[in-house]
Amino acid sequence: MIEPLLLTTARVSTFNHDRALTGASGFFFLRDERLFLVTSRHVVIDAPSGHYPNRIEIELHTDEHNLTRQVALSVLLYRDERSVWHQGEDPSGEIDVAVIELDRNVMPESLAIRYFTPAHLQSALDDVEVGSSLLIVGFPLGFHDTLHHLPVVRQAVIASSFGLRFQGQGYFLTDARTHRGTSGAPVVMRSVEQGDDLPWKLLGVHSARIDVGGRDLERDESLGLNCAWYADILLTLTASVQT
Length: 243
What we know:
Layout: E1 9-16, E2 19-31, E3 34-39, H1 41-44, E4 55-61, E5 70-76, E6 78-79, E7 82-83, E8 86-90, E9 93-101, E10 133-138, E11 152-158, E12 171-175, E13 186-190, E14 200-210, E15 225-230, H2 233-239
Antiparallel strand pairs: 1-2, 1-4, 2-3, 3-9, 4-5, 6-7, 8-9, 10-11, 10-13, 11-12, 12-15, 13-14, 14-15
């Protein structure tokens, strides 16, 4: 049996009409029987780099017993010239997380995915210590099991005080080797709770690597640190979606 964690995450490809643009990661979140795709906001729009896709494609497994079977679901990012994704902001600025509600009526009847729910969010912040072991599930540089269409997993640890907004921003730091294409990946910690077929706590949404200004590119290695936005923003973003 495949580990359920690997079925929570899908490869995301962005397009401007038929022109392929970038690759990223995303994962599924279920709330009140409504299914959402979660990814980084800069995957669906990024003004500084001139990134303006008008649709995305996500890969969906259709047979849990034969993972070579999959379909690509195309999702338009605008409807009536309005964006379909939902994003958040706080006093420090925009939060690099976006959620898109998926129309389950146009999805395959046979669907082999797993999803996080509000029950997978970490409620007691004091229970997560700096140095705790994490996993980041995604598609670095688009690399994945191309036969079974599964992501790969990188090990990480919490590198800043969890629950304390790093530099006043809505994220914490992880220490892990990451690459482009990992944006939007879930950051998870093994759960000690029993009775769940997905025994992981969803702590954050991986956004980007962090570097320091003035680093000597020849003498100094990159920090190897990343920012992960706190996953509890999903409660706000999914609650704001109107039926």
